[in-house]
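Weekly modeling sync, notes
Attendees: S.R. (lead), two postdocs, one rotation student

Agenda item 3: backlog of single-chain predictions. S.R. asked that every request posted to the team notebook include the full sequence so nobody has to chase files. The rotation student volunteered to paste the first one in as an example of the format we agreed on. Action items at the bottom.

Example entry:
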Amino acid sequence: MNQRKDTYRAALQRGPDAAVPRPVKVAQLYTRYVRVTIELDTDLPRDLMRWVGSPVSALGRAGAAALRPLRNAS
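Predicted structure, as returned to the notebook:
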C-alpha cells in the first residue's frame, strides 16, 4: 500500500509528460516575397475534445432538464 501511495505521489509531482515532443505536421508556403511555415499540432483535436467535451455535455444535460417541464406541460 505504501509503495502505491509513493508511486502516486511521484506521478503527481512529475506532472504531464512535457519532455515528450508532440507530433507536428509542417506546411510551408513559398511565394516570391513571402515565406510562411505553419506547424500544426496533430494532437489538437483530441485535446479540444478533452477540454470541451465535459462542459458541452453538461450544457446539453442542463438544457434537457430545463426543457423537460415545458414538454410535460403541453
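Discussion: group reviewed the output briefly. The longest helix spans residues 44-73.
Action items: rotation student to repeat for the remaining queue; S.R. to check formatting next week.
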